Amino acid sequence: MKHYLAIDIGGTAIKYGLISETGDLLEKEEMATEAYKGGPSILEKVKGLVKTYQDQMDLAGVAISSAGMVNPDEGEIFYAGPQIPNYAGTQFKKEIEETFGLPCEVENDVNCAGLAEAISGSAKDYPVALCLTIGTGIGGCLLFNSQVFHGSSHSACEVGYLHLSDGQFQDLASTTALVQEVVLAYGDDISQWDGRRIFEQAKAGDAICIAAISKQVDYLGQGIANICYVVNPNVVVLGGGIMAQKDYLADKLKTALDSYLVSSLAKKTQLKFASHGNNAGILGAYYHFKQKNERSCSFITLEKIENNLASS
Q1: Which residues pair with 8 in a beta bridge?
Q2: Which residues of the chain have pLDDT under 70?
Q3: What is the pLDDT of residue 294?
Q4: Phi, psi of 274 (to 5 degrees)
Q5: Residue among 235, 94, 78, 85 nearest 158 (CA)
Q6: Beta-strand runs (E) in 145-281
Q7: How far apart are CA 231 and CA 137, in angstroms?
Q8: What is the pTM assigned to this prediction?
Q9: pLDDT of residue 306
Q10: Residue 278's closest CA among 24, 4, 30?
């Protein structure tokens, strides 16, 4: 049986796991990213993981999900924020293939999460899906028939930079923005608050936390509606840590979204929550690898999109 090493590189942790040829996650571990050490250090960590697994078994390939903007054709990071110094220019695909003789594919982490939802999660069987990850910032992934749309320069769906009336989408509606709103209202140190505590307090009747969440939900409704007017998805899937608060947020988010959409579009746009949780990056990296390396995973065509839309 073939085995694939899937690696999900985030700003805090590097998650990795072994996946079977049937797509089963056989084991999963993680290590600290130590992002402050920069791109070269992360590359060495990844190469160390590949060597460890290759010494133990015959690997069929290495699949990588990573923060930053990724050129999936070259398997290279071409832009990264200051949180990971010297990460732009990291050539994972070239380094892994030349060092270990294994095929390697690399994709952006939000795209991987979206791909996981489209193939085996909440966006499965929807011709057009928009997947958003709400966390430190806001990341987006647009999929047509379970294929990621990358745009002309591999930068499509960078929705966090969308401009709303009061600022950028991610500066207004991310978890970071939610925490900052509560910290400002209480005058506390930011280390005393996180998304989990805010929701716990809101459920206990804390007026400040309730108001901050309501404000975030309204901004999410605005931003998501703007994207929907452009791409007209069948489904919007929301992921990220605070989206574990589905029971508290579901009705509020749907109401906010519908209030910014014309009724004909609101009726046709489903809102769902991500189902793969912390495994999304690893699974999506594996699915991306399979799409890039198997002939049966053909690339999307406009004709396929139009046919599926007509039948949906």
Answers
A1: 15, 65
A2: 295-312
A3: 79
A4: -60, 145
A5: 78
A6: 147-148, 163-164, 167-168, 235-239, 270-273
A7: 21
A8: 0.91
A9: 44
A10: 30
